[in-house]
Specification:
The chain is α/β, with parallel strands linked by helices. It has 6 helices and 10 strands. A 5-stranded parallel beta sheet has the order 2-1-3-4-5.
C-alpha cells in the first residue's frame, strides 16, 4: 500500500456490499482494510468507513467510525432517532470527520440555503410492502421511518440535508413482487419547485452501489458538481 492510498472499511456483505467490492475503483487509490458482516464485533480504523448494511449498522458502529475517519452510510432511516442524530453530530464535530448520507437521488435539498422555508413530498413505490399492491402509508416521514425503516433511507437523507424531518411527507405504495422500485419527489422552496422521478429496474448493479462507486471515483476529481 502506498502512502497516498485511502484506507476503507466496508460493512455489509449483501447485494450492495458485493457490488461495491466487485467494482471498487482501485485505480483511484483505495485500499480495503476489511469487509465486515452485520455480526462484526470489532471495527478496524479507516479513513472512510462505508456502511452498506443499513440502519442497524449505523446505530452500532456510527460513533466509533466517526472517531477514526469519515463515515458513509446507506442507513439514514436510523436518524429518525434524535438521540442518535445528536450523538453522531457530536462525534463528527469532535473528530472533525464527516457523515455522508446516501443516496442523493432526490433533487432540491442541496440547492436550498439554510433558513428558507421548504417542504419535501416523497411518493415511493416498492414491491412487497404489503400483502397486496396499493397504498400502505400516507403521512409524516418520522412515522413512516418507524414503520418501514428499510425503505426510507433516501427520503430521510434528503430530509435531514434539506427541509427537515418535520417538513417531509411520505406516501408509500406497495407494488407486485418483482416489480420496479420508484421514487417520485417534489421539493418546494420559495421561487422553485423541483421534481424528481426515478425508476430502478433490474438487472445491473444495485443502484445504491452505483452511487457509492461514483462517489468514490469522483472524490478526488478536480471538477465537481455543486453541492457534492
Amino acid at each position: 500500500m502506498t502512502r497516498s492510498q485511502t484506507k476503507l472499511v466496508l460493512i455489509g456483505r449483501g447485494r450492495i456490499g458485493r457490488d461495491v467490492t466487485a467494482h471498487l475503483p482501485e485505480r483511484h487509490g483505495y485500499c480495503v482494510e476489511a469487509v465486515l458482516g452485520r455480526d462484526a464485533r470489532h471495527l478496524p480504523q479507516a479513513d472512510i468507513t462505508i456502511d452498506m448494511a443499513g440502519p442497524d449498522a449505523l446505530r452500532q458502529f456510527g460513533v466509533e467510525a466517526l472517531s477514526h475517519g469519515d463515515l458513509w452510510t446507506v442507513g439514514a432511516a436510523a436518524l429518525v432517532d434524535p438521540d442518535l442524530r445528536d450523538r453522531l453530530q457530536r462525534a463528527a464535530l469532535q473528530s472533525g470527520h464527516r457523515l455522508r448520507l446516501f443516496t442523493g437521488w432526490i433533487s432540491g435539498p442541496l440547492l436550498c440555503p439554510p433558513g428558507l422555508p421548504a417542504k419535501l413530498f416523497v411518493r415511493q413505490y416498492a414491491p412487497g410492502l404489503a400483502d397486496r399492491p396499493g397504498p400502505v402509508f400516507r403521512g409524516p416521514l418520522a412515522e413512516a421511518a418507524d414503520r418501514f425503516p428499510d425503505h426510507l433511507n433516501t427520503a430521510m437523507a434528503s430530509a435531514i440535508c434539506g427541509p427537515g424531518i418535520d417538513a417531509t411527507h411520505v406516501t408509500l405504495i406497495s407494488t407486485p413482487e418483482g416489480g420496479a422500485h420508484r421514487i417520485a419527489a417534489r421539493f418546494v422552496m420559495p421561487g422553485q419547485t423541483i421534481r424528481t422521478d426515478i425508476r430502478f429496474d433490474r438487472p445491473g448493479p444495485h443502484p445504491v452501489a452505483s452511487a457509492i462507486l461514483a462517489a468514490l471515483a469522483r472524490r478526488a476529481a478536480p471538477l465537481t458538481l455543486g453541492g457534492y
